[in-house]
Specification:
Elements: E1 2-6, E2 9-11, E3 17-24, E4 33-40, E5 47-53, E6 59-61, E7 69-74, E8 79-84, E9 93-101, E10 104-107, E11 111-115
Parallel strand pairs: 2-11
Antiparallel strand pairs: 1-3, 3-8, 4-5, 4-9, 5-6, 7-8, 9-10, 9-11
């Protein structure tokens, strides 16, 4: 299983970014898995931002991002997205994609998001 994140960058407060996590090595459209986005800011622990369950498509979000971030997937592209709107400086962090699949966890390499004027 491989996960490759992209879409990070520098954005002004109030702006938007869409992160992508391209998955390979498993049957994305037909497997049972939990895909999550985590983030880690300097000097802080890694925290869960959003998650999506493949069966049923249920999602959940950290309180700090509810109403601003949306997790979604495109089975045709084997990709999970994190749409981030109304970004704040405190959203600055390295964002990681994680797949929980067949009792194992797989992580991507991370993508930097910086929110600053």
């Amino acid at each position: 299983v491989q996960l490759v994140e992209s879409g990070g960058g520098l954005v002004q407060p109030g702006g938007s970014l869409r992160l992508s996590c391209a998955a390979s090595g498993f049957a994305f459209a037909f497997s049972s898995y939990r895909m999550s986005w985590y983030r880690q800011a300097p000097g802080k622990e890694r925290e869960l931002v959003a998650a999506l369950i493949s069966t049923g498509g249920s999602t959940n979000y950290a309180d700090s991002v509810k109403g601003r971030f949306t997790i979604s997937r495109d089975n045709a592209k084997n990709t999970v997205y994190l749409q981030m709107n109304s970004l704040k400086p405190e959203d600055t962090a390295v964002y990681y994609c994680k797949a929980h699949l067949a009792f194992n966890d797989y992580w991507g390499q991370g993508t930097q998001v910086t929110v600053s004027s």
